[in-house]
């Protein structure tokens, strides 16, 4: 291994499908003395691999190499890359009609609407300039934490468009599990398509399954159909896991003449969307496939947050508060709340932090023991003895090593999780019985109630902007992209980058430490 003072091994390879390995590869590229990366991974060599390019930090021009590689990784595919004969036309997305014109003589000056975004506009992906690799959360490329701008493409309407609105056949599909805000996004996509002048908009029923040969009836969409759908949770179109393969999906799209596809879903859905995009272009189909990340778990990379997450955290407060009241009102009461989060504990962490009523927060990223002198149960005993009650908030994917494995998978291939909440309840009851202390243990599982909620106001706005930008991206001729909010600005990202591995809670992050400060819990092992 090279010495830290002379040479830092930094790797930025495209990760493999295994999320944990992938995260390692990605994280090892960051120099941070106090961070997750350097504690777990040794530095490799002087050669730095950025994408598929090797960069030598000893070379004074390494920054140029890094930037070029970053630019290439975050390039967003455009129809004109493949279809050379395309000629754009002036956008039909024009809000001038909403302004008083100079002819109207009502005193308002005529102005040209300048709400278009230029293709070369960019948004900074990282906004902190770290002074040292030992600074909290530092993500440095070299030991000096040299500042290197990492730009991504700004989302929004372009002045020129690559589809004739009156000829467009647009389709929307919602895949995976439910998430608050799905209807808000569908609504905005439809409304924005209509503003461009699109007449043919269909909803594909029940996720990718709606593309199968069974021929589930399509859902005709228009402003009047979607006007009030955001008042309800769920998805107007229905959702599903599993379904036909990509080739069948594209066959079906070809049959129906779909040339704009809006795909709302998580990591799995986006993997499918990217394959659909590739297959369409391979077949010479001039199709724009644009994703809108949907995951209540908030486990998509690079984004400030995904829609539905805020609502989930807010709704989780009700369950936590109920658990608190139950626990607080009972003699030696213990309330356990399970929240969603298959691999990522963002909902549990944020809900625990915002409620201020949680004593123990357990997430998949942080291993824990139930039994033993440092286990959760011993701490619950301490809480009962000192406070008289306790509240536990556990993410569904936490402590899966403690529950019975069935090796079952759902139709998308996701592992079916054991019920960690029920397990903790059972073990807690047994523990207190064994030590001869009566304890009143209540378990609340609000997961599906939370997921079925309608979006709150803040998510409603996020959905609106994401939905509109998805349509702008398609009309601008981009495909194989997804939309997101990044440092409060809206961006287009290439799908492979956002699904290269799932975003997790960093146990060394300031946020997790804040959560621990709030709960006052020790390490449980
Ligand atoms: N790697 C993949 N490639 C192509 N399609 C996938 C992939 N993973 C999942 N899918 C499809 O995407 C849809 C949703 O996937 P799922 O994992 O259930 O939800 P999410 O998109 O929320 O992660 C399913 O119809 C599934 O068949
Ligand atoms: O019971 P279902 O529909 O499989 O959903 C459960 C899963 O849905 C989620 O909320 C989100 O999953 P997706 O993003 O893959 O839809 C997970 O937290 C949870 O494990
Ligand atoms: Mg998934």
TrEMBL record:
Function: Catalyzes the phosphorylation of D-fructose 6-phosphate to fructose 1,6-bisphosphate by ATP, the first committing step of glycolysis.
NCBIfam families: PRK06830.1
Presence of the UniProt keyword Kinase in the record: yes
EC number: 2.7.1.11
GO MF: 6-phosphofructokinase activity; ATP binding; metal ion binding
Quaternary context: Homotetramer.
Sequence ranges assigned to domain Phosphofructokinase in this UniProt record: 170-472
Enzyme class: transferase
Site (Important for substrate specificity): 268
Cofactor(s), by name: Mg(2+)
Entry's family note: Belongs to the phosphofructokinase type A (PFKA) family. PPi-dependent PFK group II subfamily. Atypical ATP-dependent clade 'X' sub-subfamily.
Binding site for Mg(2+): 267
Gene transcribed to yield this protein: PFK
GO terms (BP aspect): fructose 6-phosphate metabolic process
Protein name: ATP-dependent 6-phosphofructokinase
Cross-referenced InterPro entries: ATP_PFK (IPR022953), PFKA (IPR050929), Phosphofructokinase_dom (IPR000023), PKF_sf (IPR035966), PyroP-dep_PFK_TP0108 (IPR012004)
Higher taxonomy: Eukaryota, Viridiplantae, Streptophyta, Embryophyta, Tracheophyta
